[in-house]
Amino acid sequence: MYGESGLKLVQHAKRTLKLPHLPPYQTELVRATTREVRDLDKDVAAILEPFAGSFNPSSEPATACALLTNHLCMRRNKRCLLAYHRNRTDKLEEMCWSGIDVLERQQQTAKNGKEGGNSGADGGSSSLSPEEEEYVRQYSDLLAAYKGQWTDIDLTGNLEPPKDLFIDVRVLKDAGEIQTEYGAITLTKNSQFYVRQGDVERLIQQGYLQRLS
Amino acid sequence: MSYYDVDAILTDAQKVPCTFELTVPGLGYLEGNMSGDMKQGSKVELPLWLGEMLALSQSLNTSSLVTLDHPSALAPRVLNALKADPKTVDLRAQAQHFYNLGARILELFDEEEMIDVLSDTYKTRAAVIADQANNVRGALGEGADFLKKLDENERELFRAAHDSAKSVRTWMADLSKK
């Protein structure tokens, strides 16, 4: 029965809606679905061949029905594919807006997967398809260009007003030297600082720093 | 209902019984008969997205290619059970998207009674769902059984009711702290 791999994709999409992270891209299912469309297209061409371009649906209702079925299956597969991808790109865009560095995180998990002796089948590979990675890259560029128009307001900043001007942070990853109003600080792993919240907000979002309350 | 709506797509994947009105060459695969033809009068369970369009399309001289029937989830047996007591029926076992399926079927058939039964069912069950969602023990104890019988829409409702009660509680707690 056609349309089943498409349905599986949509079920994956449904599950993704409730997850905080993005599960691995279903390359196999996407390929199976597109292959189905190609097979159906071949079938349609084969059915139409003897008519040589002069097909009249009302004189051949049975053939018309077969053609319609094939056409509907293709349309269904298209809808499933589009919905699956749209679902994922929506999620990626949301991640871009909330300041999660998707690509960075991908590389990290890929590295960890290799060091950990490739635990699990998908442990070492990225959960994005190459096209999705390109999409994220370009979308982030677009977002950065859009935000660049207003230098005095951070569109992706936190909407909650801060309770304290200064906060304690602990450094989780080496982030090098940053410049603040009070001079430069070098962020080395496992050190602790008392800094202005505005200066380090982005670094907290990106996962370099952890806020201590 | 949008084109990209995942729930709409899953609703359309639910099966409805169809009867073919003419013999179609090469469509045997719908019956699990890979190379054969679809015989006139054979009954097949087709997904709604296929059955609906085949039933609606009419070639110029004949009647429709396929006639649709009510899916088993909306059979008179189920509707009678819903009329008797909406609270005890296991809607999820009938169809995962029970109400959406009902709405799609009602677009195709004229059934005044089904509309009443479905909306009464939803109203009665919504009250029970809200009750269970606000009751902290509801989701664990005797309520767990009831939760398993909810269709996808009702689960959304339960989640919304549960989360909103929780957010109001945290908001109140935040207010009293200040």
From TrEMBL, chain A:
All residue ranges annotated as the GINS subunit domain in the record: 52-150
* Gene Ontology biological-process entries: DNA strand elongation involved in mitotic DNA replication
Q: Which residues form the DNA replication complex GINS protein PSF1 C-terminal domain?
A: 163-212
Q: Name one GO cellular component term.
A: GINS complex
Chain residue ranges for the region called Disordered: 109-131
- Keyword annotations for this protein? DNA replication, Nucleus
InterPro entries the UniProt entry points to = GINS_A, GINS_bundle-like_dom_sf, GINS_Psf1, PSF1_C
Top-rank taxon: Eukaryota
**What does the subunit comment say?**
Component of the GINS complex.
The name under which this protein is listed is DNA replication complex GINS protein PSF1
Species in which this protein is naturally found: Periconia macrospinosa
TrEMBL record, chain B:
Q: Keywords of this protein's UniProt record, alphabetized?
A: DNA replication, Nucleus
Query: What Gene3D superfamilies does the entry give?
Result: 1.20.58.2050
UniProt subcellular location: Nucleus
Ranges in a coiled coil: none
Q: Which InterPro entries match?
A: GINS_A, GINS_bundle-like_dom_sf, GINS_Psf3, GINS_Psf3_sf, PSF3_N
**Family label:** Belongs to the GINS3/PSF3 family.
**Assembly mode:** Component of the GINS complex.
| Protein name as annotated | DNA replication complex GINS protein PSF3
Source taxonomy: Eukaryota, Fungi, Dikarya, Ascomycota, Pezizomycotina
